[in-house]
């Protein structure tokens, strides 16, 4: 009993202690609230300091970079299927695609042909292409293998080397020469003449063969199917230069190199090189010079990257649009600045990456060219400006037979009729010169 009484007394004392606190809280709740305080004035925030854009500065053989390099988000570029890592295929048939020379004068139309496709809801027949020179001349297999393996957007074609197909083939492809088949030619059959080399190094056709061809396929940009030695394509047509991440002049101690074996070229390139060597160091390797490096030795081209600043990418002939591996491979695909001779300056500009070479006809003489090369040799910033194109694109596989197949199908759909009245005149007349182009053009104007 006494225990219960003690517990009751403790509860009463606890309640007595809490009662004043409860009454105080109740009073505070019943009091009127004061008006809200006005915000205190403050000065506007100062803008965050701007972050300087990263840059690369080339100066006296040294590339300096800031400590901070901005990051870039990886974005899908959706490159076309014929570029490395590309997956973009032609989405739909474009009836008015610019595929033929008359569609886009001055353009090679290679990309348009690679991105051409047929309507997806039609049953498309197989077109037969006869290779008059056989499979060995082309390095391809019979049947549809070439088209299916390469995943051509237009793959409804088959290749044949059987002469019995001459009367039924949709197209016949002749390489370098024409030997007619002893069969009646269908009216709609397309005859294509293919040349790899320039007019000086291709055989003339017989008079009976000059007016039988419908299409041409050569390196010339006005051919029906252009077959370039190399084809450069930008990742983004609006981006033709990138900041450099290296100095291409660093540690190079030699000036000009040239690998050459033909000492009697029609454009007198050897004589030009010898005149140039009177004003700047020119090391000529091969049969025409005093330096030697076998073609089979991979160190020869590596030597260009390591030691030389300039390379003479001189063609053996000055012919229209004639730009070969001497420029594309020996020059551009190594870390040297190509000095070019061959096609006209405007024709190099049409096929080369932006600001990637020096053309000899930009200068009045070899001595004047040598003076400019010396200036480049002494100015790393100026020299490196010729390498800013690197990383902005790539040399593509032009998938020749994919394009032949696409063109044969497109020709039928458009009911296009093409014919060369004299393919030899088209190929040879005014196409080459033994002199400089500017001299030839001046003579033409004077005689006109």
TrEMBL record:
<dbReference type="GO" id="GO:0032580">
    <property type="term" value="C:Golgi cisterna membrane"/>
</dbReference>
<keyword id="KW-0325">Glycoprotein</keyword>
<comment type="similarity">
    <text>Belongs to the glycosyltransferase 10 family.</text>
</comment>
<keyword id="KW-0328">Glycosyltransferase</keyword>
<keyword id="KW-0333">Golgi apparatus</keyword>
<protein>
    <recommendedName>
        <fullName>Fucosyltransferase</fullName>
        <ecNumber>2.4.1.-</ecNumber>
    </recommendedName>
</protein>
<feature type="domain" description="Fucosyltransferase N-terminal">
    <location>
        <begin position="146"/>
        <end position="229"/>
    </location>
</feature>
<dbReference type="InterPro" id="IPR001503">
    <property type="entry name" value="Glyco_trans_10"/>
</dbReference>
<dbReference type="InterPro" id="IPR038577">
    <property type="entry name" value="GT10-like_C_sf"/>
</dbReference>
<comment type="pathway">
    <text>Protein modification; protein glycosylation.</text>
</comment>
<keyword id="KW-1133">Transmembrane helix</keyword>
<keyword id="KW-0732">Signal</keyword>
<dbReference type="Pfam" id="PF17039">
    <property type="entry name" value="Glyco_tran_10_N"/>
</dbReference>
<dbReference type="InterPro" id="IPR031481">
    <property type="entry name" value="Glyco_tran_10_N"/>
</dbReference>
<dbReference type="InterPro" id="IPR055270">
    <property type="entry name" value="Glyco_tran_10_C"/>
</dbReference>
<dbReference type="Pfam" id="PF00852">
    <property type="entry name" value="Glyco_transf_10"/>
</dbReference>
<keyword id="KW-0812">Transmembrane</keyword>
<keyword id="KW-0472">Membrane</keyword>
<keyword id="KW-0808">Transferase</keyword>
<feature type="signal peptide">
    <location>
        <begin position="1"/>
        <end position="27"/>
    </location>
</feature>
<keyword id="KW-0735">Signal-anchor</keyword>
<feature type="domain" description="Fucosyltransferase C-terminal">
    <location>
        <begin position="250"/>
        <end position="426"/>
    </location>
</feature>
<dbReference type="GO" id="GO:0008417">
    <property type="term" value="F:fucosyltransferase activity"/>
</dbReference>
């Amino acid at each position: 009993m006494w225990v219960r009484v003690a517990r009751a007394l403790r509860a009463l004392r606890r309640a007595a202690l809490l009662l004043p606190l409860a009454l105080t809280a109740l009073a505070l709740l019943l009091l009127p609230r004061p008006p809200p305080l006005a915000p205190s004035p403050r000065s506007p925030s100062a803008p965050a300091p701007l972050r300087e854009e990263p840059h690369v500065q080339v100066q006296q053989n040294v590339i300096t970079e800031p400590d901070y390099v901005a990051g870039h988000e990886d974005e899908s570029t959706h490159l076309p299927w014929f570029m490395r890592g590309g997956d973009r295929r032609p989405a739909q048939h474009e009836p008015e695609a610019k595929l033929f020379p008359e569609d886009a004068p001055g353009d090679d139309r290679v990309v348009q042909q690679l991105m051409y496709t047929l309507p997806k809801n039609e049953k498309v027949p197989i077109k037969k292409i006869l290779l008059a020179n056989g499979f060995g001349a082309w390095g391809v297999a019979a049947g549809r293998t070439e088209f299916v393996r390469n995943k051509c957007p237009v793959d409804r074609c088959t290749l044949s080397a059987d002469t019995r197909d001459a009367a039924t083939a949709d197209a016949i492809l002749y390489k370098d020469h024409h030997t007619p088949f002893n069969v009646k030619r269908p009216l709609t059959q397309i005859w294509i003449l293919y040349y790899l080399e320039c007019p000086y190094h291709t055989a003339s056709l017989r008079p009976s063969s000059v007016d039988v061809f419908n299409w041409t396929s050569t390196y010339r940009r006005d051919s029906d199917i252009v077959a370039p030695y190399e084809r450069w394509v930008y990742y983004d047509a609006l981006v033709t230069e990138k900041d450099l991440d290296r100095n291409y002049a660093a540690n190079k101690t030699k000036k000009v190199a040239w690998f050459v074996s033909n000492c009697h070229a029609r454009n007198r390139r050897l004589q030009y090189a010898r005149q140039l060597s009177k004003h700047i160091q020119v090391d000529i390797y091969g049969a025409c010079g005093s330096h030697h490096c076998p073609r089979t030795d991979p160190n020869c081209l590596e030597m260009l990257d390591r030691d030389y600043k300039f390379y003479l990418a001189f063609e053996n002939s000055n012919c229209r649009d004639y730009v070969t591996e001497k420029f594309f491979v020996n020059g551009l695909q190594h870390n040297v600045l190509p000095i070019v001779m061959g096609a006209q300056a405007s024709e190099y500009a049409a096929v080369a990456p932006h600001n990637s070479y020096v053309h000899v006809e930009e200068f009045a003489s070899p001595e004047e060219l040598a003076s400019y090369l010396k200036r480049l040799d002494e100015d790393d910033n100026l020299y490196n400006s010729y390498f800013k194109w690197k990383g902005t694109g790539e040399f593509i596989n032009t998938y020749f037979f994919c394009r032949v197949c696409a063109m044969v199908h497109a020709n039928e759909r458009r009911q296009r009729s093409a014919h060369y009245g004299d393919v030899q005149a088209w190929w040879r007349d005014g196409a080459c010169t033994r002199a400089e182009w500017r001299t030839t053009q001046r003579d033409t104007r004077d005689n006109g």
